[in-house]
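We close this part of the discussion by returning to an individual protein. Part of our work consisted of pairing the sequence of a single chain with a tokenised description of its backbone. The amino acid sequence and the backbone structure tokens for this protein are reproduced below.
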Amino acid sequence: MSSNLKPEQTALQTLDPPKSTLGVYGWLRKNLFNSFFNTLLTIISILVIYYILKGSITWVFTTAQWAVITENYRLFMVGQYSSEQLWRVWTCLGLVSLLFGLSAGIWKGTIRNLSIVLIILYLVHTLVPFVSSTGKMWIIINIGIVIIGYLTGPKIPKNKAITLVGWSLSFPLIIFLLNGFGVFPTVKTNIWGGLLLTLLISIVAILVSFPIGILLALGRTSKLPIIKYFCILYIEIIRGIPLITVFFMAQIMIPLFLPEGFEINNVIRVMIGATLFTAAYMAENVRGGLQSIPQGQFEAAKAMGLNPVHSMAFIIMPQALRAVIPAMVGQSISMFKDTTLVAIVGLIDLLGIAQTVKSNPEFLGRHMEVYVFIALVYWIIAYSMSYSSRRLEKSLGVGER
């Protein structure tokens, strides 16, 4: 039987054999040692990586004194939150664990992988000696909650609707539990700190800025001059000043707009400032997505008899948001990391706790251990957000035709 391949195709296959037939030696020769320059570059890279890893591993396991982390671990996590009221933090964590378990059981995929990471983090905390026996008990309970939620989630009637409502109500419920609002003994927000405060500020800024950003993007494309130029003015002013300036403005100016005798504390002011700042950038991301939609989509929606509101809500906006998922997640990660600036206005977030701990005379000179730990915490959370974004893009087929 004669082959249908052309002679030049056969030659190309001969010169470029499949990866499965190369083997380890063949792969190395083709990709790393295929020329004198690449061979030299590979050797230099191996030497640099070797010395970096050798020095880093030696420091981590022999030189570093991690007592600065272990003895202040609770401060890093919840700041000065009252020890007697820590059960509220554990209860909030249990609620999040339940929602993760239910979501993993119902939707599988990315949320299941994140739930596995959550369980691994829980297990690590049960093995380290600096976590108290009470803390380990709560952690084991949370592991059980995740597993129970995963197993029972698919069996609950209307499970998707219930889980989505649970996620929607979780944040206000968490704020209620952490503060108390008179139902429980009040824990003022000015003593919230550490990773707890960092997460609360960033979650509020990201979630609340999303709908505001959509409205601003729609307003900027509006044909009504007042709405259009107001949105343009707001977006350009906010994007033209640094975040720290917005925080200072929130501290000084927000009380001017409040009724006499009505006050809001620093944490709420920072949340408002972070939300308004992030909304301006979200608006530009969404506007970019709207501009990427072909004019034919607008015409098709009009041909179907949809009015402008339905056309935007069901045809245009879903496509626009799908196109700008990477940009929106990138802005969310940036906002999460920018919460470190709240130390300038008197709040003690995760980095603020680090600054306080390394200034303790007992731990002088241990700044490297503190910053490595802080960097690891930020990396784990930021990478989880990035990973979720990539999986969401893949499931929605972003960048594919």
User: Anything to note?
Assistant: Confidence is low (pLDDT under 50) at residues 8-15. Residues 367-396 form the longest helix (30 residues). The chain has two domains: 64-81+192-401, 82-186.
